[in-house]
Specification:
This protein has 137 residues and is mainly alpha-helical. The chain contains four helices and five strands, in the order H-H-E-E-H-H-E-E-E. The chain has a domain of 86 residues: Multidrug-efflux Transporter Regulator, Chain: A, Domain 2. It has a three-stranded mixed β-sheet with strand order 4-3-5, with helices on one face. Strand 3 and strand 4 form a beta hairpin. The radius of gyration is 22 Å and the shape is elongated.
Amino acid sequence: MSQMDPDKPFLTIAAAADLARMHPQTLRQYDRMGLVSPGRTSGMSRRYSLRNVAQLVEVAKLSAEGVSLVAIKRIIDLENQAVSDRQRIAQLEKLVEELTSKQPGARVFAVGDSGTISIPSGKRPRRSTAIVLWNKR
């Protein structure tokens, strides 16, 4: 038997509310606030995933500990940003690996927003073998 995808939205609002031990109206409020964002059917009915239910339980726990809903939203946003950042770092690490494998002996360095140069070995690379990764925002 295959493992269930925790991100697949399949639970109705009533089922998700029951699993999270909350009232369905609370789930609607959390959705409006952006605390937990369920999937939608073609008819726009909410469908919750198991990950959504876990998020609802976490929101309830933080709320019971006295954390405001605005602060919980900020925490969730920061956690989501951290996940996104880790994914981007993994992509960039893969890109660096691909680029350096194509040019044996090449070195990689980066320049930060403040203009500081980060060189892993501490030596400035030769222009002919340097690979510069830069992402203008």
